[in-house]
Design goal:
There is one protein chain. With 31 residues, the protein is mainly alpha-helical. The protein has one domain. The longest helix has 15 residues. It starts with a helix and ends with a helix.
Length: 31
């Protein structure tokens, strides 16, 4: 699971930019 999330985060980071990707994931995790 961690690997899948890490891969998805990396893929999103390439498109969105690292900061935006992290923000989006934190929002999802926060619900």
């Amino acid at each position: 699971l961690e690997v899948s999330i890490g891969h998805a985060l990396t893929a999103d980071a390439l498109e969105m930019g690292y900061a935006n990707a992290v923000k989006a994931y934190l929002e999802v995790l926060a619900g």
